[in-house]
Amino acid sequence: MDQSSLPGLVISDLGNGIALVALDRPEVLNAADVEMHRALSAVWGQIDADPAFRVAVVTGSGRAFSAGGELTMLDEMARDHDALLTQWRDAGRIVDAMLSCSKPIVSAVNGVAVGAGLAVALVADISVVGRGAKLSDGHARIGVAAGDHAALLWPWLCGPAKSKLHLLLGDFLSGEEAERIGLASICVDDDVVLETAIELAGRLATRSASALAFTKRAINGHLLSSASVMGESLALEMLGFTGPDAREGIDALLEKRLPHFPSAAGEWRD
Prior knowledge:
Number of strands: 9
Shape: globular
Strand content: 5-15%
CATH superfamily: 2-enoyl-CoA Hydratase, Chain A, domain 1
């Protein structure tokens, strides 16, 4: 694999056909900048094409899985049309590439997982979360629609009622709650998250590669048949970045204060 083409990621060969993909910007809780966001859309195709690997484990370096999109990137999206289009394309490609990768992907979710990082964690075929993990799709908190993976994946995993509760409020869920509602596959003690994910990957690596690929393809057909949901939600998210609510939401994050959304203060119609 071409490691130099995947900035922000570290790829390790654990042997026995297992690739370890580490989101590796621990100084910013593995928040994704433009280059890392692009790498997260490219790495799955490289793993799929590499005969040395039969399964992938994805995790975060340090004390978080990922803090989502870096604030400077979000700020640029709200100000620059070309930057917005770039992230629109890359966000869709991350989900598409993970779903179409023929090899199983297991996520090991430690600490905080939000935004683009949460998309990677949950689109994985099996998600292992720590009890102390904190998961949130925070799009609504910055004044944009829950795009990325959320409108497509959450209702399928945990039903419309729970999806609306958590996506509209944007509150954090513990690892235990994520498992309880069906959002995550398995919840374990924080100190064995990666160990558990690698153990599961090892078991998968001994199975029939064709059986795994075909089963994954068949199950993901449910999601792919709802591709229009993904397309619309992602477009609506990007539309939101052009409006005053997103500008206020991002400014509030940068200034570490509560947002005062213009649309919440007066009449608004969709």
